[in-house]
UniProtKB/TrEMBL annotation:
ANK repeat residues: 241-274
SUPFAM superfamilies: Ankyrin repeat
Organismal lineage: Eukaryota, Sar, Alveolata, Dinophyceae, Suessiales
Top-level taxon in the UniProt lineage: Eukaryota
PROSITE patterns: ANK_REPEAT
Protein name: Uncharacterized protein
Keyword line: ANK repeat, Repeat
Amino acid sequence: MVTELRFDWFGVPQAISRTRVFDEEEDDVKQAEAAKAVDSIPAYVERCNLFVILAPELFHRDTGMICNSTSWQLRGWCISELLCQQLSNKPDTTIITLHSARHAELNSWQIDWDAVSQSHFTEDRLMVSELVRKSVAMKIQHESQTGSLAYFRYLVTGQFKLARSSGELSQRQLSDLNEEPRKEHQLHAVILDFQRETSSMPGLLCAVLSGDVQMIRTLVESMADVNLRCYNLEKICRQPSGHTPLMIAARWKQDPAVLQTLIELRADLTAGSRFGSQVAHWVQLPGQVQVLAAAKDLESMGCFRHPPLVSVACWAGPDTVAEMIAKRSDFGSLSAATKLFGSLEGITPLGADRSIANARGDLPVMLASAQGHQAVVDELMSF
């Protein structure tokens, strides 16, 4: 049995050396060779049996900053390889993250279409964006021939969101790119009876995930159910079952205008999931908080076992939590979770003790790091 390992740390040569000066002809050759190496990344990922992220928690020798799986996910080239793994045609796209010699984690993350635009680059953002764009296009072509219609629609809406979030396409190009998903939505509006819609990726959800406010209005006015319960999305996009389009829009970091449109079309702000969570538990952006607060008192939203603020602090950033507090969202009882998740950058710590471990032995800083909240880690290490 032959085992081959490909390390991305030295797997792709740099187009131009940072320390040498090449003549124009030599530079052209190196640019061409680097482009070939970059274009081969999806093929390498497609053929690999295991995708392993080696990200132990260490301090950077030069900057002193913590390097771990969270910082890995913020690096542009790393996130491009992650997206290639998620978009591959392999039956198993599980990701293995090695945090230490004794701590390994199996993940099957949902695709973050904003990952490239939010990643850190010294340069090469355009090159990475093009690489991911090609990977998405190939995946769509594959699914259109052999995959499910629901997953195909999900990829098409993601393609549009990816292009729009990159900020590198003109309005005309975006309109051209949106032509196909718009045709899909219009086909739904004309042919299907939305009162009997049984697809796991109905037209309204496609419009929500692509951020198409105009199409959302068109579909709801054509009798699409704005409070439709969406099911069977776990395998498609890791989306919990039973959520409404409004809840999904919040969870998927859609522009606040999408939430505003759904609310204007009488989306139910108090609709709960099968576990009792409401849209206020899933907000990801400060603008989403502002839209909800303008429509309803946040203190009255939260029949769940804990207030929205505690849930939001688990997966949203410090700005969103600060906006929740500014809008007088209820803290609830000062449980251990509230104390931990309340210790965010820019917010007065609520008494979390970083030396207290839970029953399994996890320290707060370990839990914060595992959730990817670097701001929480920094704050906990400060007191």
